[in-house]
Specification:
- The chain is of the alpha/beta class.
- About 45% of the residues lie in helices and about 10% in strands.
Length: about 150
Amino acid sequence: MYTQISDEKRKKIMGSIHGKGTKLENRVSEELWRRGFRFRKNVRSLYGTPDIAIKKYKVVIFIDSCFWHACEIHGTLPNKNQPFWINKFNRNKEHDIEVTDYYKRKRWNIYRVWEHDLKRDFYGTVDKIEDFILEAKSMELKGLGNLRGIRG
């Protein structure tokens, strides 16, 4: 059921949303750290500011929210100012493609995971991220290049 929210309250809600350090990103980071992985979060020196980066093995991980990255399954379009939001979401999707292509060209290992995958099966999705990191690490250590960029 849709509830009308005042412009002032909507502004406050939207202002409280942060692009990094979300609860879900923090949960993933904490779980990977608990499993023994060492990495950096929100590395601004890397293109696209990956949520998680392991430079040593050329691994970048992006956790894409269903709202901001216009998930085909769960993405919703706000009722107000739709032309702005359509443009914003299209630009976000284009940027995701640009970032993924950039890392593929640079022969980095890129993994993109949807918010809904983590919400549906958190530990199973983190297991997939772990497998990706371990395979990327193995290939880097063997000098075999990189994995393809994939979405979890």
